[in-house]
Amino acid sequence: MSAWETQTHTLRDTGDLLQEQMPDVTPEKHTDRGSLTLQARMTCWREDNGHTSAFWEFGFNGQLCLLFDLENGHWTMVHPGRRQMKEKWENDRAVTDFFKKVSMRDCRAWLQAFMMRWEKMLKTSAPPTTVPATVQPTAPGSNYITEIVFVVLAVFVIISIVACIHYKKRRRCFQEA
Q1: pLDDT (0 to 100) of residue 134
Q2: Please, what are the domains in the chain?
Q3: For the whole model, what pTM was predicted?
């Protein structure tokens, strides 16, 4: 079974667990004015030393209310109206163990599968194309020096031409006199 199929099964299991919990975790101040949606999000990452870590966020209708930190196994109430939910899940080992299992086992496997696929893609990608060697542009400071040299050379050539013309005219003048 691929990591992606495992994710689908885990997502279905998580949805089933949360549906079972819904009657017991309805917020204390909820009125029947509209539908109530429980949202859950797991975030996991792999540190440089290979350690996998994760946390869960739970909320109702987009409002964050409860966190589960895998590192210390603690539930943290973010919204004061969710005390009943926090106490219920803290005392329910099956719920806590489920979120730990998904965070530790499944998350680690998903990250490993992702990394293997990513590394494989990097290895099989074509090497960068090489271009023929070209003259590298010079540093900006040397460009100014080059321009100054060309300007001075051009001025010198112009002065030389003018001087030569002037000299030839003077020579003609002396020959005529």
Answers
A1: 58
A2: 3-124 (3.30.500.10)
A3: 0.58
